[in-house]
Amino acid sequence: MAHPGTLHRYAKKLTAFEHAPQHSSSTNNASNLILWIGGLGDGPLSVHYPTAIAKALPSNWSLAEVLLSSAYDGWGTGSLARDAKEIASCVSYFKDLRHSIKIVLMGHSTGSQDLMEYLVGPNSDSHIPVEGAIFQAGVSDRQGWAAVVADDEELKKSLKDTIELAKKWVEQGDGDAILQRKGNKMLEMFESPCTAYRANSLLSYGGDDDYFSTDFPDEVYKNTFGKIPKNTAVMFLWGSEDPYIPTGVDKWNTLKKWAGFVKEGGAKVDEANGGVVKGATHNLNGDPEDVVQDLVQRVVRFVEGI
């Protein structure tokens, strides 16, 4: 299927695909912008709902899907720090291209972790401020993989051994080395070669990727959600049918709790439009149209309020 739009090269070998405006009277040249960042294994057009958002946006907004080095099969040799640096380059490109525009970052799954790294990570002070951040399906890889292997003792042992091996390699300075997949039942489930650093980051308690786990003490959330910049409006979105949210977690109250830490830190949270999207799965691919449109209209209302 053809998707009309503009392909921007924002850095060497990195691009952002901006969907064509849907309004005949509008132009991309002065549009405010949603920069959409996908999750592990994703890249431009692999998740379908951003196209639906692009079609529904008001005439003064457009949406661009950002290609990062970690897109598609590149995630296993990447890091949130590298992703955030590339997102910063993309934000800078569009801010230079269109002076005074508003930018909202929207992350799906691990793209939400990228947003957190951009907003509160070690190098966040050097990043250009953005007007909004939408966290869609921000979930814990650590908890997700633990759930996947929970009923299989052999896989549980493989997960434990993998974490221990990855930590050992990182500690001895070999974090960039690729872990051997053959014979490792845990790593064989990955669809990408994976460094010891990224495996440790994704699977270990408190790893660099571990922003959205639901079992942290409050002090951790105060130092993540509570540090989101005051001038960045925030919205959390989870799907009621997302299989990667741990069983037994109260979705509504968890998002409300996280929103509370954001507000305590001085930033605003759109709780009227955020929350749990009834019937939505992780990335909404294949979900009923009314479910997709529920998410789409929440995003539209959010940017209209920016």
Automatic annotation (TrEMBL):
<dbReference type="InterPro" id="IPR013744">
    <property type="entry name" value="SidJ"/>
</dbReference>
<dbReference type="InterPro" id="IPR029058">
    <property type="entry name" value="AB_hydrolase_fold"/>
</dbReference>
<protein>
    <submittedName>
        <fullName>DUF1749-domain-containing protein</fullName>
    </submittedName>
</protein>
<dbReference type="Pfam" id="PF08538">
    <property type="entry name" value="DUF1749"/>
</dbReference>
